[in-house]
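Technical annex, item 7. During the second reporting period the consortium partners agreed on a shared format for inverse folding records so that results from different sites could be compared directly. Each record opens with the tokenized structure and is followed by the designed sequence. A conforming record, contributed by the partner at site C, is shown below for reference.
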């Protein structure tokens, strides 16, 4: 069976873990920095990275870090192209935030100190997540599970059609999805919780990539 090709957008030198997880799940990653949309691909993965320009969703800078405007422009174009084509989209960390902003939502630009979940320098921080019943993550992992985390921003007001489907202890959205559409955003990093990066203090992130690749295979062979 031909493996589906997945377009991957991320920062230069920072897509290896995402590509490894896609390969291990049975896909072929086509990764790039600021790539043009390639709708011959079966799905899209939007990787983690720096902050999105606050001007896309807010009137003032309230703690955002300097954006990569070229990356913003490219990834908004990617999202809209794949979304309009009805192809599966997985957004991870910044990727989840971009999905939200692209659909008219906002971001919390700088989380309060006590709720920030940064990389510690040696390993990701770990915390519990509560999944909404009948959500994708609830089906994969159950009602409460542990994930890694490394971010200082979070989804604020949700974009059109999106629902928050998992929550952190601080009540910030840890996942968003769109009922009836193959779109999932997660604030944590499943590529650092799966395969060669599997860890015992979190759930197995491979389940998310397996779910995504199943959707992409269906899309790839029926379009």
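Designed sequence (site C submission):
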């Amino acid at each position: 069976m031909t493996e589906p090709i997945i377009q991957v957008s991320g920062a230069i030198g920072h897509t290896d873990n995402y590509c490894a997880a896609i390969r291990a799940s049975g896909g072929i990653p086509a990764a790039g920095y600021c790539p043009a949309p390639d709708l011959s691909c079966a799905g899209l993965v939007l990787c983690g990275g720096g902050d999105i320009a606050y001007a896309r969703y807010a009137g003032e800078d309230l703690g955002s870090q300097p954006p990569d405007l070229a990356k913003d422009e490219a990834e908004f174009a990617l999202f809209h192209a794949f979304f309009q084509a009805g192809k599966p989209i997985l957004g991870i960390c910044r990727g989840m935030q971009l999905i939200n902003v692209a659909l008219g939502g906002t971001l919390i630009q700088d989380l309060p100190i006590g709720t920030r979940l940064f990389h510690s320098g040696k390993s990701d921080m770990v915390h519990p997540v509560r999944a909404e019943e009948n959500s994708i993550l609830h089906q994969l992992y159950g009602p409460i599970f542990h994930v890694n985390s490394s971010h200082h921003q979070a989804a604020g007001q949700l974009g059109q059609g999106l629902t928050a489907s998992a929550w952190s202890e601080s009540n910030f959205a840890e996942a968003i999805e769109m009922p009836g559409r193959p779109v999932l955003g997660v604030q944590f990093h499943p590529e650092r919780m799966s395969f060669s990066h599997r860890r015992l203090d979190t759930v197995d992130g491979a389940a998310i990539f397996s779910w995504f690749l199943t959707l992409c295979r269906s899309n790839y062979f029926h379009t």
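The chain has one domain: 5-221. Residues 118-122 have pLDDT under 50 and may be disordered. All partners now use this format for quarterly exchanges.
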